[in-house]
Amino acid sequence: MPYYERSRIYYRTFIIKSNPPAAPIIAGIDEAGRGPLAGPVVAAACILPCPVTPIGEGRWQLKAERGAGCIVGDSKQLSARQREAAFSVLDAVCVHGIGIVDAPIIDRVGILEATQLAMQQAVARLAKRCKPTYLLVDGRDRFWFDVPHSSVIRGDSLEPAIAAASILAKVTRDRLMIEADAVFPHYGFARHKGYGTPEHREAMERHGLCVLHRKTFC
């Protein structure tokens, strides 16, 4: 069933319609950075400005009114260059919000709660510009929002709005870790983005932990 048809079904099921009924406003939500040893978990909530065209399994072409266009798909399946190109377009034409929760909070509340906090931040910032009527959330975890929502397993390869959110979250987090590399050059954050690579683990043994490290992960 096409994405927009599913969205209409969600809307009819969970939203009290006005008279005449309002069009649904669907936002996709995804996160980046649940697994690394260092750095924040970042979430994005995104409303696509127009329908998209499927161009292959888990990929869509977005063509906005102003002529801007990009490929949207699971951020993990796109190259860094493709993600950056898509981010530039999505940032310009989509209504979106970003949530960021840093390592000390992750250590205090746990990664699942921290992920929910980041997603709630993202939705709150999105709603300041455009309040969504339904949320599509990547994954199987049942997070809480004050907007009707559904969890979609493998959502970043099934729902274009979630895929767009995955790109926004991933690129935002990568850029933060590249900035962190300039402050903490011994760890190589620009290369591994805080994940537990052999290079990163060796640097941790040599230099100890910095404020960006999640002590409960290390």
What report would you give on this structure?
It is a single chain. The model is unreliable at 1-5 and 7-21 (pLDDT under 50). This protein has a single domain, classed as 2-Layer Sandwich (Nucleotidyltransferase, domain 5), CATH 3.30.420.10. The N and C termini lie far apart (43 Å). Helix 2 packs across helix 5 (160-183) and helix 3 crosses helix 4. The chain has a 5-stranded mixed beta sheet. It is α/β, with parallel strands linked by helices and 218 residues long. It is globular and about 55 Å long. It has helices at residues 3-14, 80-93, 103-109, 111-127, 160-183, 189-192, 198-207; strands spanning 26-32, 41-47, 52-56, 59-63, 69-73, 95-101, 134-138, 149-152. The chain contains 7 helices and 8 strands. Helix content is 40%, strand content 21%.
| Overall outline | globular
Give the SSE string. HEEEEEHEHHEEHHH
End-to-end separation:
43 Å
CATH homologous superfamily descriptor: Ribonuclease H-like superfamily/Ribonuclease H
CATH class: Alpha Beta
DSSP E strands, number: 8
How would you characterize the largest beta sheet?
5 strands, mixed
Q: What is the total number of structural domains?
A: 1
**Biggest sheet, spatial arrangement of strands:** 6-2-1-7-8
Question: Summed up, what is this model?
Answer:
The protein has seven helices and eight strands; from the N terminus they run H-E-E-E-E-E-H-E-H-H-E-E-H-H-H. The protein has 218 residues and is α/β, with parallel strands linked by helices. The chain has a single domain (3-207), classed as Nucleotidyltransferase, domain 5, CATH 3.30.420.
